[in-house]
Design a protein that fits this description.
Helix content is 78%, strand content 0%. With 104 residues, it is mainly alpha-helical.
Amino acid sequence: MINLIFVFLFCISKMTKSSFSSTDKDDASMFQKYPIFWWTNYIVITILVASGILYFFVSNDMIKWVEKICTEIPELVCLVSVGILFIIIVQVGRMLQNVCKNDK
């Protein structure tokens, strides 16, 4: 749904000949011209991945296994899972930030 909004804005900007991009450089990549598009997709995909993992656990009755581990060593599970998710989110964010930089 969010991508449809950006497609609509892109089409309107082409019809009105106004600039929707964040830079007017001809050699800029798609990441550099439309960073808000990539950042919103990053947020939505992060939410979808987390929801997909939880859905997978619930649908395969793995949630009981996770609950068992969480009750045995809750501190370790919490720290490890939050750490792994944080590292993944930060690394993808850094990669996206490097790609969206205006400097080449």
